[in-house]
User: Fold this.
Amino acid sequence: MSEQALILDGESLTLDALRDWEATPRPAALAESARERMQQSVAAVERVIDQERVSYGINTGFGALARKRISRDQVVQLQYNLVRSHACGVGEALAPNATRRLMLLKANALAVGHSGIRPEVVETLLALLNADVLPLIPERGSVGASGDLAPLAHLTLALIGEGEALHQGEVLEGRDVLAAVDREPVVLQAKEGLALLNGTQLSASLAIEGLFRLERLWDAAIAAGALSVEGLAGSYSPFDPRLHAVRRMPGQIAAAEALRGWLSDSEIRENHRNCSRVQDPYALRCMPQVMGAARDTLDHARRILECELNGVSDNPLIFDDEVISGGNFHAEPIAMVSDFLAVAGAEIGSISERRSDCLVRGVNPDMPLFLTEEAGVESGFMIAHVTAAALCSENKTLAHPASVDSISTSAGQEDHVSMAPWAGLKLVQLCENLARILAIELMAAARAVELQAPLKTTPELQKLLKWLRDISPAHTGDRRMDRDIEELAEALLGLPEFK
Assistant:
């Protein structure tokens, strides 16, 4: 394996390393230390079977059937039955990048060495990942407790030669999936099906996607807000560092500093320095407070998800010769973080939509209504703002927490669930809406700044305008804006950073 390979040891994976790997893919491989720990846990499983000790998931049924003892000659069949019966996922397949992330997270969790699974099983999983043979994993079917069982069952089907995968645009089925990487189907041993199915990797993959997107969009929202300050001839005073130092909120201090990074020397500012307006609307004046709260939320989520990267979330777990059944598969930490991120994203969009409203309704008295060339004959940004308002309202619904909506499953045995996958799915959808809301604000703010020519904005914002105009031409009269909005939103989501 190349020296450039991403080595999985179950201990040292970070979000930054994950993001770098996703941006510049390279092979992933098990560390030798991980292989040794995994072999030790496999040996412990074999001793349980040899000594006929009753251990959940090794020689018992699952869920509400946990009291049913399984004979020694059926423990392997038990694993196959588990995988096949749990493959009940429905809906669209996960996006390729989410599938790659899920596969990597699953391999890294098993590499910790408490799951009773052979290294060669994980190496088969990594062979698929390294060749970009991606199992087709349905998005829906998990409640985020007892792990993401149904989606991970579809991953496991691919490993045993009974599933489907996507490779170079072609859908492979059955044994062809493994033939694409010159491998034979995995022959499951005791505990291995359960180790593969149990775990929170779908929930984590979706939450991380939301985090990565929101980190990019936070930077974009700061830039859009700064451009709106200039478009509205707003005051720089609310970003004075002394104000934020005495509030003592780390995110607020960081947000104000980021805004000051965009707002330096400006002819527009000098032109209105002595204007009669005393205070700006909250959508401008309170940006550090709102965006700062969002920044603190992102930082909190990053801490939690960084722990999850190297966490073990299947069940039961093996510690030396002791097999302990617990509840690490419960995805409540991820569900709550996903919900918290959704609230932050909704608020970033909400204050952006309010700034767009300020831009089109004449808060700056020198601006024409709806930023038109000729009011009445033209509608300008009237309906672009309506689109932002529609998306903003949709995000308020999507921000309703999923984690408070438990539902009992498995004949009451699994009587409290996290709903983390749904929290993650709607978080990703919310981010797509947010990118469009910010795109609309950027377009409107750019128009407002350009209407103040020959006065110039700050050098930093002039660079932003140039970048923006490479995607969306200057507004010189009514035209369709849907394509501009979508292209700009896609650019915002695709940027590794927006600064």
The two ends are 36 Å apart (CA to CA). The domain at 206-494 is CATH 1.20.200.10 (Fumarase C; Chain A, domain 2). The first helix runs from residue 15 to 23.
